[in-house]
UniProtKB/TrEMBL annotation:
Gene: pheS
Reaction it catalyzes: tRNA(Phe) + L-phenylalanine + ATP = L-phenylalanyl-tRNA(Phe) + AMP + diphosphate + H(+)
First and last residue of the signal peptide: none
Keyword Protein biosynthesis attributed: yes
CDD domains xref list: PheRS_alpha_core (cd00496)
Boundaries of every Aminoacyl-transfer RNA synthetases class-II family profile domain copy: 111-320
Coiled coil: 65-92
Keywords of the record: Aminoacyl-tRNA synthetase, ATP-binding, Coiled coil, Cytoplasm, Ligase, Magnesium, Metal-binding, Nucleotide-binding, Protein biosynthesis
Name the record gives this protein: Phenylalanine--tRNA ligase alpha subunit
Organism: Bacillus songklensis
Family statement drawn from the similarity comment of this UniProt entry: Belongs to the class-II aminoacyl-tRNA synthetase family. Phe-tRNA synthetase alpha subunit type 1 subfamily.
Length: 344
């Protein structure tokens, strides 16, 4: 039995030394130290030994097991180290090579213009207000001095869901909701950016879904001069310090008096060209003093509070700012078009 144990130890060590990978090494471990291995088989015959021989053979068997286990651990460490070295050699990275450029996206031109306008008005002390795109007829029309049957409703051909629910045709309902929420107390100083919807034929200058940014200021002693000064700051910051504005009389049901606002042409400087159709001016937005009826419906005392409102289309602003001649370019997702507007 002693000779057999020593023989098994030598066999195991030879096979351990010849193992080329961790799988082969594990096979040797199972073969010699497993429950069905030859060492276990030899130990089962210890019952035939005398009482004096059993402890001697037991001690020898433990020595053989420990020697094989020690040899296995040493070989495993060598194989693992060799595997690490192999991986390092095969996965070496040349850090002197130039990095691969990562393609990154950029702001959509409309998003860039909207954020630029928001930043400008935030610096002027305004807050940003938002409201639902699916709106009640009351807030979209009636609270803005457009009762049912009013002819001005025909100017905004609407997407109605029910008789009283529609897709908002402008962001003015946000103003009506904000005034109602304030329960007749001032001041209010907000801009309302968002999507709006009208039943319109899509062409170079029209879309059935577009964006608007409207502004509202309500307080005591608000005058038309406050509106003009605000819009002058906007035009100069948006289009250049050399730009001028002019106000032309107009009509909107929710403002009185109402004006159309033009900015001097960026191409000819107001002298007249093909861009401004020879007038020297380009229309950019509508505005006016909040109609007393709108104030009264929202719970304000129109003799104590006054206000002004204005509304602009970021698409039109972007078209003028970047020289875009077709509004549909903003919505067709042509990467060649969008890549022209990368911001530094």
């Amino acid at each position: 039995m002693k000779e057999r144990l020593q023989e098994l130890q030598q066999e195991a060590i030879v096979k351990i030394e010849s193992a080329n990978d961790l799988k082969e090494l594990n096979d040797v471990r199972v073969a010699y130290l497993g429950k069905k291995g030859p060492i276990t088989e030899v130990l089962r015959g210890m019952g035939k030994l005398s009482a004096e021989e059993r402890p001697v053979m037991g001690a020898l068997a433990n020595e053989v097991r420990e020697a094989i286990a020690s040899s296995l651990e040493a070989k495993q460490a060598l194989l693992e180290e060799a595997e690490v070295e192999r991986k390092l050699a095969s996965e070496t990275i040349d850090v002197t090579l130039p990095g691969r450029p990562v393609k990154v996206g950029n702001h959509h031109p409309l998003t860039a213009v909207i954020e630029e306008i928001e930043d400008l008005f935030l610096r002027m002390g305004y807050c940003i207000a938002e409201g639902p795109e699916v709106e009640k007829d009351y807030y979209n029309f009636e609270a803005l001095n457009l009762p049912k049957g009013h002819p001005a409703r025909d100017m905004q051909d609407s997407f109605y869901i029910t008789e009283e629910i529609l897709l908002r045709t402008h962001t003015s309902p946000v103003q009506a909701r904000t005034m109602e929420k304030n329960q007749g107390k001032g001041p209010i100083k907000i801009i309302c950016p968002g999507k709006v919807y009208r039943r319109d034929n899509d062409d170079a200058t029209h879309s059935h879904q577009f964006t608007q940014i409207e502004g509202l200021v309500i307080d005591e002693n608000i005058r038309m001069s406050d509106l003009k000064g605000t819009l002058e700051v906007f035009a100069k910051k948006m289009f250049g310090e050399e730009r001028e504005i002019r106000l032309r009389p107009s009509f909107f049901p929710f403002t009185e008096p109402s004006v159309e606002v033009d900015v001097s042409c960026h191409k000819c400087g107001g002298h007249g060209c093909n861009v401004c159709k020879g007038t020297g001016w380009i229309e950019i937005l509508g505005a006016g003093m909040v109609h007393p009826n709108v104030l009264e419906m929202a719970g304000y005392d129109s003799k104590k509070y006054q206000g002004f409102a204005f509304g602009m289309g970021p698409e039109r602003i972007a078209m003028l700012k970047y020289g875009v001649d077709d509004i549909r370019h903003f919505y067709t997702n042509d990467v060649r078009f969008l890549q022209q507007f990368k911001r530094a």
